[in-house]
Amino acid sequence: MNLTHLDEQNKPKMVDVSDKEDTTRIAVASGIIEVTPQAYDAVIANTAKKGPVLQTAVIAAIQGAKQTSNLIPMCHPLMLTSVKTDIEELPELPGFKLTVAAKLKGQTGVEMEALTGVSIGLLTIYDMLKAIDKGMVIRNIQLEEKSGGKSGDFHR
């Protein structure tokens, strides 16, 4: 079995995608952060001491998606054409669900960008609320769907 990220001398390498066709590629990922009722209320009332939690998480998610190749060693630097976010309030949990959609026209997919965006966005929520709730749980970071490329479409 040949591993795609090792060269003939078993040294790590980034896969050469130069012969792959440019296609429109979209990936959507999501994740959940569970918080205490007190932390949830602080977010909803916009009284967290570090500022507007959800707005900051959206900016962080976009920034995280754009920085993926700097954080994940074998990821290609990509020219993203769009990063969209959505945060769903989950009062019954309590917590929040963050969804990130990344898009480009290129030779490699954007799954890692969407997943990294979700991770960084949720970590930002944690950072902004840790003075209120150190027991927050980040979970279910997952690819929801992808389209474009040779491997075809995926829908969870």
UniProtKB/TrEMBL annotation:
Pfam families for this protein: MoaC
Ranges where the Molybdopterin cofactor biosynthesis C (MoaC) domain occurs: 14-149
Gene3D superfamilies linked: Molybdopterin cofactor biosynthesis C (MoaC) domain (3.30.70.640)
Pathway membership: Cofactor biosynthesis; molybdopterin biosynthesis
Binding site for substrate: 74-76, 112-113
Broad EC category: lyase
EC number: 4.6.1.17
Highest taxon of the lineage: Bacteria
Keyword Mitochondrion set for record: no
InterPro entries in alphabetical order: MoaC, MoaC_bact/euk, MoaC_sf, Mopterin_CF_biosynth-C_dom
CDD domains from the UniProt entry: MoaC_PE (cd01420)
Keywords: Lyase, Molybdenum cofactor biosynthesis
Catalytic residues as annotated in Swiss-Prot or TrEMBL: 127
Molecular-function GO terms, alphabetical: cyclic pyranopterin monophosphate synthase activity
Catalytic activity: (8S)-3',8-cyclo-7,8-dihydroguanosine 5'-triphosphate = cyclic pyranopterin phosphate + diphosphate
Family: Belongs to the MoaC family.
Subunit note: Homohexamer; trimer of dimers.
NCBIfam families membership: moaC (TIGR00581), PRK09364.1 (NF006870)
Protein name, entry field: Cyclic pyranopterin monophosphate synthase
Organism: Sulfurovum zhangzhouensis
